[in-house]
């Protein structure tokens, strides 16, 4: 089997699983909208997003494409989330933990299929773990991954 055929097989399998679980663009759109509405109002995460997302009408479609790429069709998102999160220079384990709490709660309230809810949850936890690992490694090397000492959050303001 060629690499192209394998890639198409993976895409077809992911699309079929999404369809079986009731995951479509409408569900992803509603979930992302509701989640980021909660993020914007959150005491810990809201200020960070408020300082770094200039235009939600551009950010939300990108996040919808990101989640569609994860859940339905690989390749729909084109971006560099690791570099974006590292560039913030202020994220801690507490930020990622709070993001996951809000995500898990939003999924539980808005995704009726248990299989789809579990896929959303597992994917988010893997993504958060990966981003946190990248952020901490960039900030303090491998030693940063071995410590439970929280790094104080540095909140920036718009100038």
The total count of strands amounts to 0
Portion in helices = over 70%
Rg: 17 Å
- Give a quick account of the main beta sheet: strands, pairing sense, barrel closure: none
Number of helices: 7
Structural class: mainly alpha
Mean pLDDT rating: 85
Low-confidence stretches: 150-159
Shape: globular
Strand content: under 5%
What does this structure look like?
This protein has 159 residues and is mainly alpha-helical. Helix content is 74%, strand content 0%. The protein has helices at residues 3-21, 25-41, 46-52, 56-71, 81-88, 93-110, 114-146. The termini are far apart. Mean pLDDT is 85; it is low at 150-159.
Note the main attributes of this structure.
7 helices, 159 residues, disordered C terminus, single chain, globular, mainly alpha
């Amino acid at each position: 089997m060629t690499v192209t055929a394998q890639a198409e097989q993976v895409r077809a399998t992911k699309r079929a699983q999404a369809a079986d679980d009731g995951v479509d663009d409408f569900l992803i759109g509603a979930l992302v909208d509701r989640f980021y509405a909660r993020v914007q109002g959150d005491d810990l995460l809201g200020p960070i997003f408020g300082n770094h997302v200039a235009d939600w009408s551009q950010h939300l479609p990108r996040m919808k494409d990101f989640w569609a790429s994860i859940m339905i069709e690989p390749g729909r998102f084109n971006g560099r989330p690791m570099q974006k999160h590292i560039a913030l220079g202020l994220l801690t384990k507490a930020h990622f933990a709070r993001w996951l709490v809000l995500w898990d709660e939003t999924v539980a309230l808005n995704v009726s299929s248990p299989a789809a809810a579990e896929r959303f949850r597992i994917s988010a936890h893997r993504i958060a773990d990966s981003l946190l690992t990248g952020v901490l490694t960039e900030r303090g090397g491998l030693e940063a991954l071995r410590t439970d000492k929280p790094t104080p959050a540095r909140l920036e303001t718009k100038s």
